[in-house]
Amino acid sequence: MVQSTGLCPICRKNPTADAYKPFCSKRCADLDLQRWLTGGYVLPGGPDDVPPDNDEEG
């Protein structure tokens, strides 16, 4: 989510290059990606949001 203040969501510095917006640098963009890939961020949802397992046993 882009912050309304325009600050980098990772380190809270002002972005100086458009290449990595909304982040201030490649480092902050990579940190954000790493957090998504390793489960650091999760989307809310209950157990009902899990699709049924279609594997048939037997």
Query: How much strand content do the residues show?
Result: under 5%
Sheet having the most strands: none
Distance between the termini: 45 Å
Give the averaged pLDDT, no decimals.
82
- Determine Rg (CA atoms, Å): 17 Å
Overall 3D form: elongated
Return residue spans where pLDDT drops below 50 for at least 5 consecutive residues: none
The H-and-E topology, N to C, reads as: H
The total count of strands amounts to 0
Number of helices: 1
Structural class: mainly alpha
Q: Tell me the helix content.
A: 10-25%
Explain how this protein is built.
With 58 residues, the chain is mainly alpha-helical. It has a domain at 1-40. Helices cover 21% and strands 0% of the residues. The protein is built from one helix and no strands. The chain has one helix at residues 26-37. The longest helix is centred in the middle third of the chain and has 12 residues, at 26-37. The chain is elongated and about 55 Å long. The mean pLDDT is 82.
Overview in brief:
This protein is mostly helical. It is built from 1 helix and no strands. 5% of the residues are buried.
Supply the key terms.
58 residues
List the helices and strands and how they pair.
Blueprint: H1 26-37
